Amino acid sequence: MYHFLLRPWHRRWGASGDEVNRHLPGDEIVPEPSDETTRAVTVEAPSEEVWPWIVQLGQGRGGFYSYTWLENLFGADIHNVDRIVPELQELQEGDSIRMVREDYWLQSSVTSMTVERIDSGRTLILQGHDGGIWTFHLDPIDDDTTRFLVRGRKPETRSAVGYALRYLTYELPHFIMERGMMLGIKSRAEHDS
């Protein structure tokens, strides 16, 4: 039931068919992904009010605006802010964005990600040490409305065991947290608008 009903839904949560199929900046970094998700939400705020929330993402930064209790249940030490923090608005290519605290008990290829590319006000692309990308993209619809898309692309999985582990232990929890993050950004940007 998960594979045929829930999985197809959560892999493209909120996204239209056109959004799922369109090229987004960063797709060329992983041109033939073994796995891809595209999720989207409409934010009733101008893109310039959404962007600052995206720029300050990260552990030890603005947090991930998701389920703090769940993030910290596993010791990630996430503190989600409810305001724009001016000193967190400077982000450059090559900067590291941590997903968990630096001395976290479980280190993986996505414990931290590197800022691969920034198109200020529009696109932030993070890349994990496994080569995968996490793209945050804003499409202004009009002066007061923004379409917020998040795409994940994974390179080819090295083993069947690695694929099975990602399928069984990573996909659904990642969706729950990413959806929470997207709704958290939406709520904060709309509140400020």
Descriptive overview:
Helix content is 33%, strand content 24%. The chain has one domain: START domain (Alpha-D-Glucose-1,6-Bisphosphate, Chain A, domain 4, 2-Layer Sandwich), CATH 3.30.530. With 193 residues, the protein is α+β, with helices and mostly antiparallel strands. A 6-stranded antiparallel β-sheet has the order 1-6-5-4-3-2, covered by helices on one side. The model has no long low-confidence stretch (mean pLDDT 92).
Provide the number of structural domains: 1
Cα(first) to Cα(last) distance is 40 Å
* CATH architecture classification name: 2-Layer Sandwich
State the helicity in percent bands.
25-40%
Structure described in brief:
This protein has 193 residues and is an alpha+beta fold. It is 33% helix and 24% strand. It is built from five helices and six strands.
Relevant terms:
single chain; 193 residues; alpha+beta; Alpha-D-Glucose-1,6-Bisphosphate, Chain A, domain 4; 6-stranded antiparallel β-sheet; 5 helices; SRPBCC family protein
Spell out the blueprint of helices and strands:
Elements: H1 2-11, H2 17-21, E1 35-43, H3 47-55, H4 68-73, E2 96-98, E3 112-119, E4 123-128, E5 133-142, E6 145-154, H5 160-192
Antiparallel strand pairs: 1-6, 2-3, 3-4, 4-5, 5-6
Helix pairs in contact: 3-5
